[in-house]
């Protein structure tokens, strides 16, 4: 009798749950579609910004924060507006912005790694500054700032370039020469050099590389392929992709690249900078954002060398954007701030202080004289020129992030002996195709 | 006996008729007394409704829509549920979750019972040992994951350094799938052991000592006393621990994320991490994540209800 009562209670509870699901399903949780972009042409009067306040949501890579604050101080002085810099962790950026947009607490401007999730929410900067604004930026980084209908939804505010760092002291001890811009290594030569230096110095590993699909994409590009093509479709060439993955998984399985480091981090990103800083690997495949950190923390002589070549040379790009939100309380001020922060002098100041690379054509042509590590930054700048255009198209595709994760997950499986490289390539292609389809909906 | 109770009670509640009249009319004082408990729980209930019940209901709702930004929604019906169950990763994740939950519940319950019996029998340093075993409960699971990640590192971890000293080599605790799952279960037990033991200890201390004394006089051995007295009398408390452990097992995520990141090769990825990755990692799929969340809720609810009903039935027998 007692247990019958409990059964009844359980059945009632389940029925109540089912009713809740049905009731909940009756109402839409939000709007069905985003509003259409407004077409307007507004002339901006900077004098009208005096006394206004602008919020700038920002994530920092390190030294760029002070560079940004310095520029903001100049902007405030020039316009009389107040800028509130709101710093969030990179991992929280998208969730934080989506929540704010959803709740109507829209910031004026944000620093973004991709415009894709917000493309319905951003101001077309061309409506304030004309089509000429686009022409001021390098075509590669500009790829990531253009909307579906050709709108300028953001400005590429800095550019990153992947490339190898070398422990010069260890190379000198091993008597292995470093490559030059005129005579870069081939990928095979880089690996052989790393192995020689490892043996001579007794380091744990020959190479170190961040656990990141973005970093592995550098090797894909060097072998002549990318995950996504310029027209936004899945593009991984099975033969070329297979060669690149053979190299990476071979290095991991032989522990020339740390297998434990790769597998222990699970599905999380992991930076291998500590392996390099500890002197445990003579070559570290990363990117220019490490320069300021190494300048401060490395206790040995190090340098940046040109990316190696296989079928192609160059590295793999990345970068950030500045965008203004349509629902911003001060849309004109927001658009003006984005444009002002990326004028020639502003961007020169920002990239010099941050040890970043410029996205403006004029600055790329004239070059930047960095106060420190100028030779290393010059190597990265040179590699921007060598980097194939399809790499820019690939990295700025909305499907790139997910397909880069798939790339890492499949490498994991090969290293753990669960599948071969051919199966991994096939799976990456399939997942990338699905992501391209998902993100184009 | 009842007369003495009635004698001591206020005039209005001495007879049944008096009680009902009292309820109908209600004095200002008794109405206040009646509402007081609700007023006390009202703030907590409001928070619970706002931050637990409402989001949970909204989760049901969102599972029927497609959304990549949490603002624009497209009706998807049951498509998200279909996509979840046909996802190969989800099938693997369900397998890992079942292995984790079964091992975790069985081992943590058995270990907690053992520990609580030992703590109960202890005469010296009781408080110190109880505090020591309870300490991990007070730590953030994120921090626990990080600490054990360091301790179990193959090259520089404390565990392997000690093992290497005695010639046992350097096992890849977090690199080999089976070892990583074992480590995950172990750390899960380490976190919860103190809490469950305290619950069981309270249950043990509620058992009448004269029963043990009688059993001793009858010549029962320590094992027989444990087997035929402690375990049956501890069954209601054990049931609570099993239910809590089941819920905690299914919900495990935070310490695993910092311990193994769900690796190697997804070998320790459980359902909550699957949901987290679908919801908060690019490309964001709130509907799919919510559908998986609803399925997890349904399973946890069903397993908990089953545990409860089976436990109560065997208790009645």
How would you describe this protein?
The complex is a heterodimer of chains A (441) and B (317). Chain A has helices at 2-26, 64-79, 93-103, 126-129, 132-135, 139-142, 168-174, 187-201, 213-222, 238-253, 259-264, 273-277, 291-297, 331-341, 344-354, 361-366, 374-386, 389-395, 400-415, 421-439; strands at residues 53-58, 82-87, 109-112, 155-167, 207-209, 283-287, 302-304, 317-324. Chain A is an alpha/beta fold and 441 residues long. Chain A has two domains: 46-159 and 318-384, D-Maltodextrin-Binding Protein, domain 2; 161-317 and 390-439, D-Maltodextrin-Binding Protein, domain 2 (3-Layer(aba) Sandwich). In chain A, strands 1, 2, 3, 4, 5, 6, 7 and 8 form an eight-stranded mixed β-sheet that branches. In chain A, helix 2 links the parallel strand 1 and strand 2 (82-87). In chain A, helix 7 (168-174) crosses helix 8. The radius of gyration of chain A is 25 Å and the shape is globular. By secondary structure, chain B is mostly helical. Chain B has a single domain (89-313), classed as Orthogonal Bundle (MetI-like fold), CATH 1.10.3720. The longest helix of chain B is centred in the first third of the chain and has 35 residues, at 28-62. Chain B is globular, with a radius of gyration of 26 Å. At the A-B interface, helix 1, helix 3, helix 11, helix 19 and helix 20 of A face helix 3, strand 2, helix 14 and helix 15 of B.
């Amino acid at each position: 009798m007692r247990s019958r009562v409990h059964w009844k209670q359980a059945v009632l509870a389940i029925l109540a749950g089912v009713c809740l699901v049905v009731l909940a399903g009756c109402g839409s949780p939000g709007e069905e579609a985003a509003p259409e972009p407004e077409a307007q042409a507004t002339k901006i009067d900077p004098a009208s910004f005096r006394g206004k306040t602008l919020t700038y949501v920002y994530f920092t890579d390190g030294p760029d924060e002070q560079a940004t604050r310095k520029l903001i101080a100049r902007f405030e002085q020039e316009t009389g507006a107040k800028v509130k810099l709101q710093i969030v962790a990179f991992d929280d950026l998208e969730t934080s912005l989506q929540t704010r947009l959803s709740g109507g607490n829209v910031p004026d401007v944000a620093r973004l790694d991709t415009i894709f999730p917000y493309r319905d929410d951003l101001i077309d900067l061309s409506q304030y500054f004309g089509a000429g604004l686009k022409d001021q930026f390098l075509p590669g980084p500009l790829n990531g700032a253009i909307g579906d209908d050709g709108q300028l939804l953001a400005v590429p505010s800095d550019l990153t370039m992947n490339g190898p760092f070398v422990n010069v002291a260890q190379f000198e001890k091993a008597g292995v020469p470093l490559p030059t811009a005129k005579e870069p290594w081939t990928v095979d030569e880089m690996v052989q050099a790393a192995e020689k230096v490892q043996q001579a110095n007794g380091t744990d590993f020959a190479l170190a590389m961040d656990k990141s699909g973005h970093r592995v994409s550098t090797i894909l590009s060097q072998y002549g392929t990318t995950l996504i093509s310029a027209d936004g479709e899945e593009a991984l060439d099975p033969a070329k992709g297979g060669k690149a993955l053979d190299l990476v998984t071979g290095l991991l399985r032989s522990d020339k690249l740390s297998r434990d480091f790769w597998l222990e981090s699970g599905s999380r990103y992991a930076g291998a900078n500590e392996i390099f800083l500890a002197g445990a690997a003579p070559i570290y495949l990363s990117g220019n954002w490490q320069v300021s950190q190494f300048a401060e923390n490395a206790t040995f002589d190090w340098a940046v060398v040109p990316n190696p070549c296989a079928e192609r040379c160059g590295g793999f790009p990345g970068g950030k954007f500045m965008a203004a939100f349509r629902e911003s309380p001060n849309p004109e001020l927001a658009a003006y701030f984005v444009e002002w922060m990326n004028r020639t002098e502003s961007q020169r100041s920002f990239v010099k202080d941050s040890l970043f690379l410029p996205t403006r054509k004029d600055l790329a042509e004239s070059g930047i004289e960095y106060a420190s590590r100028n030779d290393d930054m010059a190597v990265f700048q040179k590699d921007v020129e060598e980097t194939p255009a399809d790499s820019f198209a690939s990295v700025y595709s909305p499907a790139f992030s997910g397909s880069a994760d798939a790339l890492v997950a499949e490498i994991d499986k090969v290293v753990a002996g669960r599948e071969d490289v051919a199966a991994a390539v096939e799976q990456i292609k399939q997942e990338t195709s699905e992501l391209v389809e998902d993100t184009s909906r | 006996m009842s007369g003495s109770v009635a004698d001591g009670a206020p005039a209005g509640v001495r007879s049944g008729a008096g009680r009902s009249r009292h309820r109908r009319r209600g004095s200002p004082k008794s109405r206040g007394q009646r509402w007081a408990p609700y007023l006390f729980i009202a703030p907590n209930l409001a928070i619970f409704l706002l931050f637990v019940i409402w989001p949970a209901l909204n989760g049901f709702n969102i599972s029927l829509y497609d959304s990549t930004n949490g603002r624009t929604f497209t009706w998807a019906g049951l498509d998200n549920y279909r996509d979840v169950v046909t996802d190969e990763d989800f099938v693997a994740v369900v397998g890992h979750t079942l292995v984790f939950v079964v091992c975790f519940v069985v081992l943590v319950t058995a270990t907690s019972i053992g520990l609580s019996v030992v703590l109960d029998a202890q005469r010296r340093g009781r408080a110190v040992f109880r505090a020591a075993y309870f300490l991990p409960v007070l730590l953030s699971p994120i921090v626990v994951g990080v600490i054990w990640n360091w301790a179990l590192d193959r090259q520089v971890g404390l565990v392997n350094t000690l093992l290497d000293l005695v010639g046992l080599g350097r096992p890849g605790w977090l690199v080999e799938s089976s070892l990583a799952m074992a480590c995950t279960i172990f750390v899960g037990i380490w976190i919860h052991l103190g809490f469950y033991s305290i619950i069981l200890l309270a249950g043990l201390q509620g058992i009448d000592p004269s029963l043990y004394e009688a059993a001793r006089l009858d010549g029962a051995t320590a094992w027989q006393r444990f087997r035929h007295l402690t375990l049956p009398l501890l069954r209601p408390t054990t049931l609570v621990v099993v239910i809590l452990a089941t819920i905690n097992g299914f919900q495990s995520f935070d310490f695993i994320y910092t311990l193994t990141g769900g690796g190697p090769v997804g070998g320790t990825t459980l359902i909550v991490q699957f949901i987290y990755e679908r919801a908060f990692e690019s490309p964001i799929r709130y509907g799919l994540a919510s559908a998986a969340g609803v399925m997890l809720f349904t399973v946890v609810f069903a397993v908990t209800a089953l545990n409860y009903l089976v436990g109560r039935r065997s208790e009645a027998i």
